[in-house]
Design brief:
six-stranded antiparallel sheet; mainly beta; 19 strands; about 325 residues; rod-shaped; about 0% helix
Length: about 325
């Protein structure tokens, strides 16, 4: 970039060249706009074809009498670029950003890049780019304010067990949006109809390819209501409760969890170890409470140094 200011009867033309004078009128012309006795203009000067290092930029103007001015020259250091990179928000260190492929190593480069927004959360962010020259010297990072709008472009659901990302049953999202209300019919075909309790899980995918956290809920297909207790993303419920014979402890977590469960009496004494291990998806544990005396028992859960209890009534 350069600017010039000239005075004449009327300045009507200008031209520039690098290093060697090609002769008056034979250099690269510059559009000075409206002629005037005083003109201030800004120009973009091409550096294509110039070698790395010091060069001399020369500019002259012509008035409406056809008279050329003396030459105004400026020393310019030209950097030849060998590579480029970008990063979001925080600098990982020079050379550690995401690589960008240059279409040439000229001092002047015009290239369109596809910048990944995968895993970039919605909102305002700063995109930085920088280039490296022949002397292995990096430029300062150029910042650009960018608003990321991660509209929902896909969605799916599954029952009880995760089939893997993008392997669930697709939901119609319609036009991509940041806020979508689903009205799809959810099929129960293939569910074990001998069980009343099932866990319905949904998730969405944004424009950046990132999937959302799980949205899960207990669905009771039976005639009797079931109380769903959720703690630390773990569903746990007993059905039937009260119980006199067999009852089922149903556990569900979309994330793999290591949990220990004991049954205790109201005095805090352990009656039995109910379960100890990993829960990923749904796990049903059948308990025979018929040998137990009637009364109130406590199910004690321990997971990730967190403790909670639920009540079991034995009739």
């Amino acid at each position: 970039m350069t600017s010039l200011c000239g005075w004449s009867q009327n300045l009507v033309s200008a031209e520039y060249y690098w290093d060697n004078d090609p002769g008056i009128g034979n250099a690269t012309s510059l559009n000075v706009g409206t002629p005037g006795t005083t003109i201030n203009e800004s120009f973009t000067i091409s550096t294509n074809g110039l070698s790395h290092g010091e060069h001399l930029l020369c500019i002259r103007t012509m008035n409406d009498q056809g008279e050329w001015s003396t030459i105004e020259s400026k020393a310019v250091h030209i950097h030849k670029y060998t590579s480029a990179e970008y990063f979001w928000d925080e600098d990982p260190g020079t050379g550690n950003g995401n690589s960008l492929v240059l279409n040439s190593n000229n001092a002047e480069i015009t290239t369109n890049f596809n910048i990944s927004t995968v895993n970039i959360r919605e909102g305002w962010h700063t995109l930085f780019t920088r280039v490296r020259g022949l002397a292995d010297t990096w430029s300062v990072a150029q910042p650009y304010a960018v608003f990321i709008e991660n509209k929902i472009v896909a969605a799916e659901y599954f029952w009880n067990y995760d089939p893997g990302v993008a392997n669930g049953t697709a939901l119609d999202v319609g036009s991509p949006s940041s806020d979508i209300t689903f009205t799809d019919d959810v099929t129960t075909v293939g569910l074990d109809t001998t069980q009343d309790i099932h866990y319905l899980v949904g998730r969405t995918m944004a424009q950046n390819g990132a999937w959302s956290v799980f949205l899960d809920t207990l669905i009771n297909l039976g005639p009797v209501s079931v109380e769903d207790f959720v703690f630390a993303d773990m569903h746990n419920n007993l059905f039937p409760n009260p119980a006199s014979g067999l009852t089922t402890l149903s556990l569900f977590s979309v994330y793999s969890k290591n949990i220990s469960i004991t049954m205790e009496n109201i005095s805090g004494e352990t009656v039995q170890q109910v379960f100890k291990g990993i829960v990923s998806g749904r796990k049903d544990i059948q308990l025979d409470v018929s040998p137990l005396s009637a009364g109130i028992y406590v199910m004690h859960y321990v997971m990730d140094n967190q403790h909670w209890t639920t009540k079991l009534i034995v009739q």
